[in-house]
Amino acid sequence: MSENADSATATTGAIRNHVGEPLVVLTDVEKFFGELHVLQNINLTIGKGEVVVVIGPSGSGKSTLCRSINRLETIQSGTISIDGVPLPSEGNGLAKLRADVGMVFQSFNLFAHKTILDNVTLGPIKVRKLSNAEARKRGMELLTRVGVQDQAEKYPAQLSGGQQQRVAIARALAMNPKVILFDEPTSALDPEMVNEVLDVMVDLARQGMTMVVVTHEMGFARKAANRVVFMADGQIVEEADPDTFFTAPKSARAKDFLSKILTH
């Protein structure tokens, strides 16, 4: 398992953001896929400015947890709130709340028939009601921020995977979200492209963006997380700051997981 972020960022020391009042709150969340109990009694509070990295073996419920926060997955019971507002089940309220929750997927999900800049400006124009000129100015600022400003008039197929994922991050930022969810954002990338995406994410963490990151990149977790949440079999087994988790995990399940991934 990769520790790609180590080499790119180890020299600057770990980031530990100031954590503000609760922003994302999951209470007694339960989720089933048929008979499969994929989220079991999930209780998790994420503060403003906090970077929470969710790790665990495949099938542990990590991505389902992430996708439940903006209701891409529905839950059977429990509550999820964003900045004090319960997540609506549907309709305009859900669309409005989702606008405050950015999402970066494993696959880039860019519109193939639109230019890079158009991909970034579509949401702000349609949802935030920005003018074309405002959205394009902001879009170029964000493409510059993630280092792909020279690609603005190209189409997604003309970009590398790493460039496309950086565009996806710019697209999420364009909505001025309160929190960004990352669902294994580097797992579809060739190894040499991983660090360019992780570096952008580290910069976001340094700037105080609230982030929930499902990832296999242990180096990023060590570098940027305020807290590591370890999941297995649909449950949160353990959570701690990175230094504590990686050096002194408490549960046998976490010890076993780390012994397997940190020796490869």
From TrEMBL:
Chief place where the protein resides: membrane
InterPro entries from the UniProt entry: AAA+_ATPase, ABC_ATPase_HisP-typ, ABC_transporter-like_ATP-bd, ABC_transporter-like_CS, MetN_ABC_transporter-like, P-loop_NTPase
Keywords attached to this entry: Amino-acid transport, ATP-binding, Cell membrane, Hydrolase, Membrane, Nucleotide-binding, Transport
EC number per UniProt: 3.6.3.-
Origin superkingdom: Bacteria
PANTHER family noted in UniProt: AMINO ACID IMPORT ATP-BINDING PROTEIN, GLUTAMATE_ASPARTATE IMPORT ATP-BINDING PROTEIN GLTL
Identification of the protein by name: Glutamate transport system ATP-binding protein
Organism: Microlunatus panaciterrae
Species lineage: Bacteria, Bacillati, Actinomycetota, Actinomycetes, Propionibacteriales
